[in-house]
Amino acid sequence: MGQYEDFKKNIYSLINVDLNSYKEKQMKRRITSLAKRNGFDSLNEYYLKLKTDKELLDQFINYLTINVSEFYRNPSQWKILEQNIIPELINERKRPLKIWSSACSTGEEPYSLVMLLTKFYNLEDIKILATDIDLQAIEKAKDGVYNEKALANLPKDFVDKYFEKVDGSYKISSKIKRAVEFKKLDLLKDPFPTGMDLIICRNVLIYFTNEAKDKLYKKFYSSLSDQGIFFVGSTEQILLPEQYGFKSVRTFFYKKMTKL
Ligand SMILES: C[S@@+](CC[C@H](N)C(=O)[O-])C[C@H]1O[C@@H](n2cnc3c(N)ncnc32)[C@H](O)[C@@H]1O
């Protein structure tokens, strides 16, 4: 199946998503197999149908963005966040922290953060920003209904305190929901918020090319406050972080070093 170059251009004009910044081999394989699964042998035919079939287009966007997430994903890192990173930030700042979950998917990551922060602040005083490119994922996040598997790593006291069991699913408390402001943001083309003390960007950088990652590290650096922390996913350590002005303070946690 050829025509990937044309397909990328067409998708950009249709939904404004730049497939050039995603690792080509993996993305092409995924898209081709999705097209085949829907009965299209050519990417061109698939695109023509995507233009007119809203449901097919939604399926494409959803598949493309890979929304898998869970509460307290990689629990050992959440422990470091709780025991070291957050207390250090609070000590240094002496003001409310500005926190951004930058590829928040269906909400597990920002809601985990809110629950963790209740150990340090009153719930009413917690406010964090959560963004994603995928509006459907954001809608699910706002619904806040999860299956048991998504909660497997979440400390039991949080499950008991902040979830209600409804028809076999777990519904998150509206008090936790209220602490998160969800917005659509495409990391590849939208401006970033500024003055962030902690940015979490996990399990999305792996899909991007080195060129795209290079640009993003610079944008994240500018988005952080002095000595702010950048928290990445388990397979996403930054190669030579110093070149971006970051210092590795713990595995998967980088501090913005302010130039003198
Ligand atoms: C695998 S999920 C990661 C969710 C969560 N951060 C975690 O680690 O569990 C990847 C998310 O990245 C989002 N994403 C993909 N491309 C993006 C882009 N260009 N800008 C913002 N978000 C993007 C997807 O929509 C998806 O929700």
Quick structural summary:
With 260 residues, the chain is α/β, with parallel strands linked by helices. The chain has ten helices and ten strands.
How does this structure look, described?
The chain has helices spanning 4-15, 24-37, 43-52, 54-65, 75-93, 108-117, 135-143, 156-162, 174-177, 210-223, and strands at residues 99-101, 128-132, 145-146, 163-166, 169-172, 180-184, 196-201, 224-232, 246-250, 253-256. The chain is α/β, with parallel strands linked by helices. 43% of the residues lie in helices and 18% in strands. The longest helix has 19 residues, at 75-93. The protein is globular, with a radius of gyration of 19 Å. The structure holds S-adenosylmethionine. S-adenosylmethionine binds at residues 65-69, 73, 103, 105, 108-109, 132-134, 137, 186-188, 202-204, 233.
Key descriptive features of the protein:
260 residues, 2 domains, three-stranded antiparallel sheet, 10 helices, 18% strand, binds S-adenosylmethionine
Task: Give a topology summary.
Blueprint (H helix, E strand, L loop, with lengths): L3 H12 L8 H14 L5 H10 L1 H12 L9 H19 L5 E3 L6 H10 L10 E5 L2 H9 L1 E2 L9 H7 E4 L2 E4 L1 H4 L2 E5 L11 E6 L8 H14 E9 L13 E5 L2 E4 L4
Parallel strand pairs: 1-2, 1-7, 2-6, 7-8
Antiparallel strand pairs: 3-5, 4-5, 8-10, 9-10
Helix pairs in contact: 1-3, 3-4
